[in-house]
Design a protein that fits this description.
CATH topology of the largest domain in chain A: Alpha-Beta Plaits
Organism (chain B): Streptomyces sulfonofaciens
Number of helices of chain A: 7
Helix content of chain B: 40-55%
Shape of chain A: elongated
CATH class of the largest domain in chain A: Alpha Beta
Structural class of chain B: alpha+beta
Distance between the termini of chain B: 38 Å
Strand content of chain B: 25-35%
Radius of gyration of chain A: 23 Å
Mean pLDDT of chain B: 84
Helix content of chain A: 25-40%
Structural class of chain A: alpha+beta
Number of domains of chain B: 1
Order of helices and strands of chain A: HHHHEEHEHEHEE
Oligomer: heterodimer
Distance between the termini of chain A: 54 Å
CATH superfamily of chain B: Cation efflux protein, cytoplasmic domain
Largest sheet of chain A: 4 strands, mixed
Protein name (chain B): Asp23/Gls24 family envelope stress response protein
Number of strands of chain B: 4
CATH architecture of the largest domain in chain A: 2-Layer Sandwich
Number of helices of chain B: 4
CATH architecture of chain B: 2-Layer Sandwich
Mean pLDDT of chain A: 72
Chain lengths: 243, 116
């Protein structure tokens, strides 16, 4: 066998109910709103029970979404735990490769992003925001298991933004190697906002990109901007100023 | 022993072995399995037996290979790659033991679903 294994998609858990109907088919009919029109789903006790369970789950998901839009209302511990499970499952993200191409070892994006954010939050004056992790194209071509990281941070103006970006990048790569064993091909850092002495956001966005092992590598990477014309070697504001 | 019995034995044996690997906090059921637990009364009534959370075994009859998928939550302080390698080794050995000398091959996939 050559090259990286295919990421697991969880379809191995998709088993048939005792009546022979795949649980996935019940789920799809529920999502499509066609369950009521299906004569089997409407009468089969197994499918009816499964539909009931999906209705309950849908309620949990909707509550999870509502919790994102409104302040928390102190849910009971059981509800909190169930909703954490739902969030973990729904938002776990794609599986990312661990180890060599032949090893068939994986870690979900949510677990990787959580580790990276925690590592960056340990930096003084820096808070991690959105973190996306995807298999690196170069790694896929080589059959390896490297990833590419896009990370947003918020920081104060007390520190040089380039130094912040370098420190963030170093933290991410170090965490990837030491805590996870994940190979990082590139880290794109976006300073999504800056804070003044009073903690107020300025609403300015800067992007930096670099590949680990290549130093700062200004301009490396598809999404980053650094040292553009007329900037005197500084970062390029993306979002203008003010809100 | 039927393929279903073999599957159950593989899943149980692999789960026990994976759970003993240092750095493994727990095995991780996915939502479809959690949902199936909700309909477990039907599953049991149909004689399909108990399910093992976090481990799923499937026989590829064309290739005579058991595909064993293991999902784990790992402990921080243990490098995820090292844990998954140890889980794979443990799962591979456990699956072969459960096959009782049968010639079927074993292919193990390990996924970390969370680090706690």
């Amino acid at each position: 066998m050559n090259g990286r294994q295919v990421p697991p998609d969880g379809t191995g858990d998709d088993e048939a109910l005792p009546c022979g109907t795949p649980l996935r088919a019940v789920w799809e009919a529920y999502d499509a709103g066609t369950a009521a029109q299906d004569p089997h789903l409407g009468t089969c006790p197994h499918c009816t029970a499964a539909l009931h369970e999906l209705t309950v789950l849908d309620g949990f998901v909707e509550r999870a979404r509502s919790a994102d839009r409104s302040p928390a209302v102190d849910p009971d511990p059981f509800t909190t735990r169930v909703m954490e499970l739902v969030r973990l499952e729904v938002r776990s993200g794609p599986a990312l490769p661990l180890g060599g191409a032949e090893e068939d070892l994986w870690i979900v994006e949510a677990a990787v992003a959580k580790a990276f954010r925690a590592a960056v939050d340990a930096l003084p004056g820096v808070r991690a925001g959105s973190c996306r992790v995807r298999p690196a194209d170069s790694g896929a071509e080589a059959g390896g298991g490297s990833v590419r990281v896009d990370l947003e941070v918020v920081t104060s103006l007390e520190r040089n933004l380039q130094e912040v970006a370098e420190a963030v990048r170093h933290r991410v790569v170090d965490s990837a190697h030491r805590a996870l064993g994940l190979e990082v091909d590139a880290v794109d850092v976006t300073v999504a906002d800056v804070l003044d002495d009073s903690g107020q956001a300025h609403g300015t966005t800067f992007s930096y990109a670099a590949a680990p092992g290549t130093g700062t590598a200004p301009g490396h990477g598809s999404g980053g901007r650094f040292g553009g014309p007329g900037t005197g070697g500084g970062p390029v504001p993306e979002g203008g100023t003010g809100r | 022993m039927t393929p279903h019995d073999t599957r159950q034995e593989i899943e149980r044996t692999v789960a026990a072995a994976a759970g003993r690997v240092p750095g493994v906090a727990s095995l991780s059921p996915r939502l479809p399995r959690l949902l199936r637990d909700g309909t477990a009364r039907f599953v049991r009534a149909a004689g399909r037996g108990e399910q093992v959370p976090g481990v799923h075994a499937r026989l590829d009859t064309d290739r005579h290979t058991w595909h064993v998928e293991v999902k784990v939550t790992t402990l921080s302080g243990h490098r995820a790659l090292d844990v998954t390698r140890a889980v794979r080794a443990a799962a591979d050995g456990a699956a072969h033991a459960a096959l009782h000398g049968a010639r079927d091959a074993v292919a193990v996939t390990v996924t970390v679903t969370a680090v706690v």
